[in-house]
Amino acid sequence: MTARTKIYFASDIHLGALGYTSSREREARIVNWLDSIKHDAAELFLVGDVFDFWFEYKTVVPRGYIRFLGKLAELVDSGVKLYLFKGNHDMWMFDYFVKELNATIISNELIIERQGKRLFIHHGDGLGPGDGKYKLLKKVFRSRLCQWLFERLHPNLGVGVANYWSGHSRLANAAPQEQKLFENEWLVTFAREALQTQHYDYMVFGHRHVPMVMQLNERSQYVNLGEWINSNSYAVMANGIVELRYFERNGNATANEVQD
């Protein structure tokens, strides 16, 4: 029996985005990937925007994603520890996944030590300089008052409004080639500034949809997990090393080299 020693990270699956057919195809890919890691995974970190929209009413959750949720349940029941991060698209997670999947819900950053390494993990939204408009909106959307008001909407109206909003997001309108990372962009800037006061071996983010590993200094690396719309990218940690990989339907994976 294979030992469960590896730690897996993925982000920005955006289930529900770009229409039903696209979402179902993406769900099938992620389920195949989860099936491929179930024998050696000790922990699974889903680092935000797993869903293009998510809101938990007291007795209602968004329909769909049954194969994905079933596969997560299978992994959890087999002993895999599950962490779900709130992203900017699915920040309204409350206790549904805690009760159903025994998941740990992470609202902001998570700092952990694994395999002798120190990791900083965050979806990536609202960090670094600039983007004041979004930072204000994030505070509003995460406020209990905003959540209470949204709960007053009938689910058909609430989910419909949210899906319309998501359909006009950067994800729906930006071409893959427009998504680029630069040395001085805000997430990289945030990572470099954080390292001035604390040491992290790996700083792991999603949100930017750009799969990349960047050397920040002699001891620290920036890891962006990318997304599952085009890249099917994820990261795996084994023997203290985090490596970015790409999933193919045949179960093979290709690695990403570190950029200076």
In short:
One of its GO terms (molecular function) is metal ion binding. The chain has about 260 residues and is an alpha/beta fold. The chain contains eight helices and twelve strands.
Would you write up a description of this structure?
By secondary structure, the protein is of the alpha/beta class. Helix content is 31%, strand content 22%. The chain has eight helices and twelve strands. The strands form two sheets. Strands 4-3-2-1-10-11-12 form a seven-stranded mixed β-sheet. The protein is globular. The termini are far apart.
Number of DSSP E strands: 12
Unreliable sequence segments: 172-179
Order of the strands making up the biggest sheet: 4-3-2-1-10-11-12
Task: Name the CATH homologous superfamily.
Answer: Metallo-dependent phosphatases
Structural class: alpha/beta
Largest sheet: 7 strands, mixed
Count of helix runs: 8
Q: How large a portion of the residues is in β-strands, by DSSP E?
A: 15-25%
Helix content: 25-40%
In the CATH hierarchy, the architecture is: 4-Layer Sandwich
Total number of distinct structural domains: 1
Written as H for each helix and E for each strand, in order along the chain, the element string is EHEHEHEEEHHHHHEEEEEE
What is the CATH first-level class name?
Answer: Alpha Beta
Apparent shape? globular
Mean pLDDT: 83
- Span between N and C termini? 38 Å
